[in-house]
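Think of the structure tokens as a kind of shorthand, similar to the way a musician reads notation: each symbol stands for something richer, in this case the local conformation of the backbone. In the example below we present two proteins back to back. Begin with the first one, reading the sequence and then the tokens, and try to describe in your own words what changes along the chain.
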Amino acid sequence: MDDDDVSYDESLKARIKASVHYTVGKICQREESEMGVKCSKQFLAALAELTYGKCGSLASDLESFAKHAKRSTIQVEDVKLCARKNPSLAKLVAEKATDLEAETQERLSKKRRKDNKPADEDGESASDAAPSAAVASAATGATHKSKKVRQA
């Protein structure tokens, strides 16, 4: 790695840490107002550092689980494995995975319905009519182009 890569990596790491610190601060502000407590700056900094470290550890574990399964992509099952030692977290992850799967299936079924238009009065489906309309417009366009060529 050359100096440019190292400085870029350190800059990226600093920006990510700052982003985590900012987000933890916003969450703490919200919780302060709901719970009626005050978080010190030292607490906020420690919590942000702990969160950043846990995210790094989680990322490493997720990569290891995917690699062990001979995959290069992290999947839901890898996240479930990370949460397996915390029953309440495992339950939340499983529920969210189920919700995401249902949303995905709903989007796919809507797309399939959109692709399979119902037949019109002539018994011709919208997908059958589209090519003839495209051919007609192409023929019309070709006629206009040929007129322009003749005029020139």
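Once you have a description of the first chain, move to the second and do the same.
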Amino acid sequence: MTTPRTLFVAVIIGAGLMTACTSTGVPGSSGSSLSSQPGTPAFSSSSSLASLASSPPQSSPAATVTGSIKPLAVPFTSQAPFADWGDPYQEACEEAAMLMVMHYLNGTALTPAIADKEILDLVEWETANGYSHDVTAAQMVEIAEKKFGLNARMRTDVTVETIKEELAAGNPVVIPAAGRDLGNPYFSGEGPWYHALTIIGFEEGWTGDKFIVTIPAPSVAVSTNTTWTFSSAPSTTGRG
């Protein structure tokens, strides 16, 4: 029996409130990498983790993961598939992140036309069901269950090592991040206050270890492996 792959949503900003993932912070590429050098935390000490799967989530491997982890084949979409940065697209980073991973789990294609329709449909569904234009990680779990028919659960042990474990198990990791703390050179201006990222792989190297990340902001996917770095959490603590 094959262990089902899982999406993990890691709350980086304490209680998980996300606001304004707008075009103010549009980066210039769809992929990035986050360095995992010890001693310089970037995750919230009150981080939590939610898993979403197409069948009941299974336990992740407990052993320490070593070496690089090949990027998962998560299909890319911008949160504004046709570069329209008006509402609701400027606030749709969470929706785009969920849709990318849903299509990865289901093994289905995600074209700009499909993404555009599904983002609008999801925002309409969220509004009709009492959600605001920004959703929390806990609400992502609810949406996964109610809208997409996926099983979901919450975890609170978010560390660099647990993220690597999930990647090694084939599970993408969605991070609602404090955008202006990321140090992303591809953001315009100071960047967005908050932004949703999806970690899809891990690169181990002599210049520093990096998480490979896809960002739903650009209108065109330049590359899923273009990199930038910021220091991330040691295995025990961190902040947003």
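Compare your description with these statements about the second chain. Residues 6-214 form one domain.
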